[in-house]
Amino acid sequence: MSNPENLRYSKEHEWLSASEGGVSTVGITQHAADALGDVVYVQLPDVGDTVAAGETCGELESTKSVSDLYSPVSGEVTEINQDVVDDPALVNSAAFTSGWLFKVRLADEPQDLLSAAEYESFITSA
User: Is Chloroplast one of the keywords UniProt gives this record (predicted)?
Assistant: First the structure.
């Protein structure tokens, strides 16, 4: 499995894109999607909600379990991926592309996020 070099990663297995105009995209990693199994339901924060780094902001339900979704950064949700709400399997099939979850206007610079190499080392040592 290859984690894109242009993303940053949390230890809760979320990824964050580089900020474009102060807005970043959030999703879960392929590692997390594979561990979850077939995702059948996604609950995301609402547009306008404030999320806090490291705090729960939604849920992902699979045929195996329900997992909390954590925000890797603090800020205001500007968009959710309605395609994922309508077809949660996108999380499994395209975790790093069309399976993104929400966009957030950053309140401050992200802290404690890992590079692709650091994340790879983290998941292989766990």
Answer: no
**DSSP assignment string, 64-124:** S-EEEEE-SS-EEEEEE-HHHHH-TTHHHH-TTTTT--EEEEESS---SPBPHHHHHHHHH
Which letter does DSSP use for residue 20 in this model?
B
84: left (phi over 0), alpha (psi -120 to 50) or beta: alpha
Which one-letter amino acid corresponds to residue 72?
P
Q: Is 33 helix (H, G, I), strand (E, B) or coil?
A: helix
pLDDT in tens, 36-88: 999 999 999 999 999 999 999 999 999 989 999 999 999 999 999 999 999 99
Give every CB contact of residue 27 below 8 A, 6+ residues apart in sequence. Answer: 14, 15, 91, 95, 96, 99, 100, 101
Question: Which of the four pLDDT bands, split at 50, 70 and 90, describes residue 27?
Answer: very high
How confident is residue 110, by pLDDT bands cut at 50, 70 and 90?
A: confident
